[in-house]
Amino acid sequence: QVQLVESGGGLVQAGESLRLSCEASLRPFSIYAMAWFRQNPGKEREFVAAISWSDGNTYYADSVKGRFAISRDNTKNTVYLQMNSLKPEDTAVYFCALRRWNAQTVPRAGYEYNDWGQGTQVTVSS
């Protein structure tokens, strides 16, 4: 059973930065991609960013492009999300997700991912 453990959330002011980390505790048979999603109470889960595990190609939601950066460390089975110029609307619980199997393209839909972390709260005050 793969366990994903997120860390790095917290309370910051608008304009500040945070770095989230997500480590897969057990190396699954394969990793195709890892991603970050976020969700607020009563709202749908929202895609934030994803990274291809093999070649490191990255994908972003328009709302975070240019401010957030996703990266990975293959040796540590860890994915990171560097969040800069944070805005109050970035406030949410952030979840990391792992997709084990290949796809035509790195997916942005949550149902395409096999394993999920428990989430870490990010709060941005104005």
Structure description:
This protein is mainly β and 126 residues long. The chain has strands at 4-7, 10-13, 18-24, 33-39, 46-52, 58-60, 68-73, 78-83, 92-99, 115-116, 120-125.
Topology:
Blueprint: E1 4-7, E2 10-13, E3 18-24, E4 33-39, E5 46-52, E6 58-60, E7 68-73, E8 78-83, E9 92-99, E10 115-116, E11 120-125
Parallel strand pairs: 2-11
Antiparallel strand pairs: 1-3, 3-8, 4-5, 4-9, 5-6, 7-8, 9-10, 9-11
Q: Residue ranges: pLDDT <50 for 5 or more in a row?
A: none
For the secondary structure, the number of strands is: 11
Number of helices: 0
Strand content: over 45%
Mean pLDDT: 94
The largest pleated sheet is described as: 7 strands, mixed
Evaluate the radius of gyration: 14 Å
| Helix proportion | under 10%
Cα end-to-end separation: 40 Å
SS class: mainly beta
Q: Which sequence of SSEs, written as H and E, runs from N to C?
A: EEEEEEEEEEE
The general outline is globular
